[in-house]
Automatic annotation (TrEMBL):
Membrane-spanning ranges: none
Organism: Salix udensis
InterPro entries: AB_hydrolase_1, AB_hydrolase_fold
Database matches in Gene3D superfamilies: alpha/beta hydrolase
Pfam families assigned: Abhydrolase_6
Domain AB hydrolase-1: 74-333
Full protein name: AB hydrolase-1 domain-containing protein
Length: 348
């Protein structure tokens, strides 16, 4: 082979290698297509669903007093890696005494609700509004959001405050990049997280296009709760976990059935995206005390640092802040606390 042919050959090899590398990189950052419920090869549809104006479906579950008779209608927004099948430990006596209708639903991509690649704080709020309208539960309703289910509540406060009778955030998600959050407060809370979670939330916020790769690569640990790290749970949480383990959780196998990326990954991405608003942009949705807004924080919560939620409550004095000394992240599943949360919400 003539020596003058070597540069051309090397160039061809380099181009081929670069193309192969780009193809490999594209495959590693591109999530697989979802397994949509009711589609060929997808999971079956077993729950009632409503069809939204954009064609998506939301699956739901109703509990309590019939909505036509109920005095209080509460939409419960599940947290990370959960679904409409979450079980609140509220007694039938309390439900009847307070005349409560509960509406649970699978957030987009979870359980039997269709995935939505453009999920956001805003879209989740409008999903809630449309669900309420489709089921004709009335012009006003209460919302309870737990953990990652808190950012849809913030969305409701921003985009549909006129629809709310009251709202409650329970061990709520915090956004470490809210512009109004002082750097020292954000850092104080952020540094309480394990290194793996710090990196995961940074990737979600700063380079969301890399998030699927980050969550599936094997070189570094990603989200500790998905890895089953039990150190995340405080002693009060472990007591609740022990009690909950005595009864099999209904429908847990359905939570991720349409794909981990469509359910869990997109939940984190929506929460830690750049929002259209800051918590300091929110105004009191109940200026005449016609409703109330509550924030419940466990002092022993190792997943959500209390410092940030305490700061938010100080800056927004219309928030009724409840910091429970001996409670962790799972406080909503403790009977007496669950009932206290519900009574405070509907009785003000």
């Amino acid at each position: 082979m003539h020596s003058s042919q070597f540069p051309a050959m090397y160039a061809e090899i380099a181009v081929a290698l670069a193309a192969g590398l780009l193809s490999w990189a594209y495959q590693t950052i591109k999530p697989p297509p979802p397994k949509i419920c009711g589609s060929p090869g997808g999971p079956p549809i077993t729950s009632p669903r409503v069809k939204l104006s954009d064609g998506r479906h939301l699956a739901y579950r109703e509990m309590g007093v019939p909505k036509e008779e109920a005095k209080h209608k509460i939409i419960v927004i599940h947290g990370f890696d959960d679904s409409k099948n979450l079980s609140l430990p509220v007694s039938q006596e309390t439900i009847e005494e307070l005349s409560i209708y509960f509406l649970f639903f699978d957030r987009a991509g979870y359980g039997e609700s269709d995935p939505y690649p453009s999920r956001s704080v805003k879209s989740e709020a409008y999903d809630i509004q449309e669900l309420a309208d489709q089921l004709q539960i009335g012009s006003k309703f209460y919302v309870i959001g737990m953990s990652m289910g808190a950012y849809p509540v913030y969305g409701c406060l921003k985009y549909i405050p006129h629809r709310l009778s009251g709202a409650s955030l329970v061990v709520p998600f915090v956004h470490y990049w809210w512009p109004s959050l002082p750097a020292n407060i954000s850092k104080q809370g952020f540094q309480k997280l394990c290194t793996a979670d710090q990196r995961t939330f940074q990737v979600a916020h700063h380079t969301p296009w890399l998030f699927y790769w980050w969550m599936t690569q094997k070189w570094f640990p990603s989200l500790s709760i998905m890895a089953g790290n039990m150190n995340l749970f405080s002693p009060p949480d472990m007591e609740i976990i022990k009690k909950l383990s005595e009864t099999p959780k209904v429908g847990q196998e359905m939570v991720r059935q349409q794909g981990i990326h469509e359910s869990l990954h997109r939940d984190v991405l929506a929460g830690y995206a750049k929002w259209e608003f800051d918590f300091m942009d929110l105004t009191n949705p109940f200026p005449n005390n016609e409703g109330s807004f509550h924030l419940w924080q466990g002092y022993e919560d190792r997943i959500i640092p209390f410092e940030i939620n305490r700061y938010i409550a100080e800056k927004l004095p219309w928030i009724h802040y409840h910091e429970v000394p001996d409670a962790g992240h799972l406080m909503l599943f403790k009977v007496e606390l669950c009932e206290a949360i519900i009574r405070a919400l509907v009785l003000g």
